[in-house]
Specification:
It is a single chain. It contains 12 helices and 7 strands. It is of the alpha/beta class.
């Protein structure tokens, strides 16, 4: 396990401006940071994107395209078809994947597992469909995520701990987060699924987490625009986004913190 900065090798592809024009700002911030992690990671095919959603992230992080995207929800998969990021899209539960054993050389799952109440069956399926020596890349919020929420921290400072915890529970519901496990817990789960952690690191400082947090209520107009027009922004012009980019870019460029709100893992399928 390592805290080595995966961006220190230099030259990550910068798609932040593009993402700001296509997504709510808080989502663009998070996805830009995560997309950069994949820039120098090997992705031997065939690759499965577990929880591919609407496919937008794949167009940014994997411009070469991926073999398979899997998601249990019909509507996001319909949108994913328009992005043409996958050779095949599959509607299925991650705990019951319709693939043969050892079908994939790589599995990626970006900010997905925290939304699954019973995650261990999904990890066992990942272990089943991965080839021996294949890699599983995934990221999730860690135990610091709730601790870093700025409103809750402010309430804790003035001894309003009950209100602070109520706010954290509210944010859990809004974000649909079920899991904030430690790296040790994830390592144990992966081991039971036949996988070993090769490396992991933390990302998103308290300040970056606060920007993500406040982006949720500030992004509510984007939800309305999406429902009415099918896109997140009415005016994705440069003049309308320059201030947002200026305010958030510092968090895109920040070095990996020793304690971060989120966790990124590289795990390897054990040899049989």
């Amino acid at each position: 396990m390592s805290f080595h900065d995966p961006l220190s090798a230099g030259g990550p592809r910068d798609t932040f401006r593009r993402q700001l024009g296509e997504l709510p700002a808080f989502r663009a911030l998070l996805r830009e940071v995560e997309a950069r992690f994949y820039a120098d990671l090997p992705l031997p095919p065939p690759v499965l994107d577990l929880g591919c959603g609407d496919g937008h992230f794949a167009t940014v992080a994997f411009p070469q395209g991926l073999e398979v995207g899997l998601d249990p929800w019909w509507k996001p998969l319909q949108e994913a078809r328009t992005h043409h990021a996958y050779h095949l899209l599959s509607r299925a539960d991650g705990a019951r994947m319709p693939f043969a054993d050892a079908s994939f050389a790589t599995v990626v799952s970006n900010s997905v597992l925290e939304h699954i109440p019973a995650v261990e069956p999904v990890l066992h399926e990942v272990g089943r469909v991965l080839r021996p020596g294949g890699r599983f890349y995934f990221c999730v919020p860690g135990p610091n995520f709730r601790r870093f929420l700025s409103v809750a921290r402010a309430l804790d400072t003035v001894k309003l701990h009950t209100l602070a915890e109520a706010y954290r529970r509210l944010f859990d519901r809004i974000a649909r987060h079920y899991d904030y496990s430690t790296p040790e817990t994830w390592a144990a789960r992966l081991a039971r699924a036949g996988l070993s952690v090769e490396r992991w690191w933390t990302y998103f400082s308290p300040a970056a987490t606060a920007a993500l947090e406040w982006g949720h209520p500030l992004g509510l107009p984007c939800v309305v625009v999406k429902k009415l027009t099918g896109r997140w922004l009415l005016t994705p012009a440069r003049w309308n986004l320059w201030l947002t980019e200026a305010l958030l870019r510092r968090y895109v460029e920040e070095p990996l913190p020793p304690e971060g709100a989120c966790l990124f893992f590289i795990a390897t399928k054990n040899a049989v």
